[in-house]
Write a structure and sequence with these properties.
- By secondary structure, the protein is an alpha/beta fold.
- It folds into 2 domains: 52 residues, no CATH class; 169 residues, Collagenase (Catalytic Domain) (3-Layer(aba) Sandwich).
- It contains 7 helices and 8 strands, in the order αααβαβαββββααββ.
- α5 packs across α6.
- It is globular, with a radius of gyration of 19 Å.
- It starts with 7 loop residues before the first helix and ends in a 14-residue tail after the last strand.
């Protein structure tokens, strides 16, 4: 079920939540400019009016990360130019021991491993599964406003970006209130993993990194790949698995999958 944006107050709340406004009492100019920016990002007719079409777009499933980084720039790569990227070549990750958004925990974990396999090919980075306390990227699931979620509908997931001068630990989370079996969970994870690699939202509706969920776009697109190539100075290849190697294991390097010993991880996301 999608959240409905029906009133002026709903619109202002939404615009603030996703970075188009910074005040709950905007002037007419601030409101109209924010709506115009949102319409550009969403590929709508830019009339600065929050009418039925615009409010319907605001009601779509989407990522919980802000759009403010692209609200004032047509070229999303200018955001990436802030050097939001990992400074090292091997990134570790951990999955909450209770992580389950699909039918069972194994399927949910395999979804995460597959995302890292794809991005290993696109970035040339190596991803290794690690204990929760030591991992660079920590992945869990939660529900409620405390974790940036709004119940069923609207925000599906969110992830932090590596925009510090030095590498710091990042979090990613999925909303437990969503009906994940009805969504393309891999596409949503690949979008969030784009953030974890340093990609801000794109204002190109054809990109996977557009802020809203599009069931037709299931993999990183040309725009997403070119931005990754710019960040990691990588010639891109198709994210295809090597012959005879199973997916969903614990270490991914380039297009290779390595199976190390089992790792025990523990939860640290308040019941996620």
């Amino acid at each position: 079920m999608q959240v409905q944006i029906k009133t002026y107050a709903d619109t202002v709340t939404w615009l603030n939540r996703f970075g188009y406004l910074t005040t709950n009492q905007p002037s007419l100019w601030q409101h109209d400019y924010a709506v115009d920016s949102m319409q550009r990002v969403y590929g709508l007719k830019r009339d600065s009016i929050a009418g039925p079409v615009t409010r319907s777009a605001m009601s779509q499933f989407r990522c919980g990360c802000h759009d403010s980084s692209i609200a004032s720039s047509i070229q999303a790569i200018t955001v990436d130019a802030k050097h939001c990227r990992w400074q090292k070549d091997t990134i570790t990750y951990a999955i909450s021991s209770r992580f389950k958004i699909l039918g069972n925990r194994r399927a949910s974990r395999d979804l995460i491993h597959e995302g890292f396999r794809i991005y290993a090919v696109l970035t040339g980075l190596t991803f290794k599964r690690m204990s929760w306390n030591r991992a660079d990227i920590r992945i869990g699931a939660a529900r409620g406003p405390r974790y940036g979620f709004d119940g069923a509908g609207s925000i599906l997931a969110w992830a932090e970006m590596p925009c510090s001068d030095t590498d710091v630990k990042l979090l990613a989370a999925f909303d437990l209130d969503e009906s994940w079996e009805e969504l393309n969970a891999l596409a949503i994870w690949l979008h969030e993993l784009g953030h974890l690699m340093g990609l801000a939202h794109s204002d190109d509706p054809a990109d996977l990194m557009a802020p809203y969920y599009n069931k037709v776009i299931t993999l990183p697109q040309a725009g997403d790949k070119s931005r990754l190539a710019w960040l990691y100075k990588r010639l891109l290849g198709p994210p295809e698995p090597p012959p005879g190697i199973p997916l969903g294991e614990h270490e991914v390097s380039g297009s290779m999958v390595v199976v190390p010993g089992a790792v025990t991880i523990r939860l640290n996301l308040n019941g996620a």
